[in-house]
Amino acid sequence: MNNESIFNKKWNDASEGEVLYVRPSIAAVVSAFLGLGAFLVYISPWFFFLGIIALVLSLYAFWAIRSSDGILTGMPFAYIGLCGAVVALVSVTIFWQAYHYGLRREADQFFRLWFVAIQEGDIPRAVEYRSIYPHRSRAADAEERWRAQYENRFSHRAVHQFVEDEMIRVLLALGNTATVTYYKTSEIRTEPEWDAVIAVYAVTFPSESGEKETFFVRIIGSKL
Q1: 145 and 124 in contact (C-beta within 8 Å)?
Q2: Distance in angstroms (rounded) separating the CA atoms of residues 38 and 44
Q3: Mean pLDDT of 102-127
């Protein structure tokens, strides 16, 4: 008769025939789905948080799986979540940096043309730059543009309203004696239907005393 009590055995002792059941890490699975969904950030910046959550969950899943002694699985899911989050976040950051750089370059070229038109006294062309491209005239020279402005009463009125601005009159008075230099881009706005660049330019001109003076012009340009 065996007097050994069953209570002498440890309940966590496993025999050779027993099977160790494992389960996938929920954090790893969720991070995989969010990591793939992080690419929606190209549609809207509001999806940026998906990549952040996927990154945090994947790192937590790595730690949980490695410290579970084989109970948790799902390393491939954690890798998918990590890679998806990193690629989405890094690529969209590079994309927007490059896109904004292109906008700044294009806006700077356009703003410089606008300043040149004012410095040369070509007011009709400077006024036309304020409207979208299809609405601008195809006049070959300044004289033809002036004639077109006077023939159209609405354009004629726009010219008068344009030169009523004090800053415009100052730039016209300075003419080519002023030097216009890019100073900074204060803001870039990106919307689904249009982009806008707000830039600041330094206008330097010789004063009556012979010394150079500078004032700053804030200008806004939009692109459909």
Answers
A1: yes
A2: 10
A3: 89
Structure tokens at 42: 């190209």
Q: Is the pLDDT of residue 133 over 90?
A: no
Q: What is the pLDDT of residues 66-92, one digit of tens each?
A: 998 888 899 999 999 999 999 999 999
Are 27 and 56 contacting, i.e. CB atoms less than 8 angstroms apart?
Answer: no
Please state, in angstroms and rounded to a whole number, the distance separating the CA atoms of residues 184 and 191: 21
For residue 131, give both structure tokens.
């409207």
Task: Give the model's pLDDT for residue 82.
Answer: 94
Tens of pLDDT, residue by residue over 149-169, are 655 656 667 777 887 888 889
Cα→Cα distances 158→114, 141, 145, Å = 16, 19, 13
- DSSP run (H or E) holding 103: helix 75-119
At 15, list the tokens.
Answer: 């025999």
157-180 core/surface letters (b: 16 or more CB in 10 A; e: else) = ebbeebeeeeebeebbebeeebeb
Structure-token pair, residue 144: 């033809």
Residue for token pair 């999806």: 47
> What is the model's pTM?
0.68
